Amino acid sequence: MPRVKVTRNFQVTIPAEIREVIGLREGDYLDVTLDENNRIIMVKIPYRKRKTLRAGRKLTPEEIEKIIVEGLEETLI
To answer: What distance in Å separates the CA atoms of residue 4 and residue 31, rounded to the nearest whole number?
Structure first.
């Protein structure tokens, strides 16, 4: 099991072998929580490229609703 050191700014470096296995990249986000035994659990948040819309394009109400639902689902991950 790799060991990490906490810096004076309370930062840690995630070992390379773990970063490679989970595909962690600079700028990625991790959710951090504790389990029932106060052990740290980190979960990588899946990245999903956001849709961009071209200015001036007319959207149907159905397209708008779909985009809203997809955005709400993203926030619940």
So the answer is: 18
Answering whether pTM is above 0.70, one says no
The SS3 assignment for 34 reads strand
Q: Scanning the structure block, which residue is given the tokens 């990625």?
A: 28
- The tokens describing 69, both together, are 């639902």
| List of residues 6+ apart from 45 with CB closer than 8 A | 28, 29, 30, 31, 77
pLDDT in tens, the chain (77 residues): 889 999 999 999 999 999 999 888 888 888 899 999 999 998 887 766 666 777 787 888 998 898 888 878 776 65
Domain ranges of the chain: 16-75
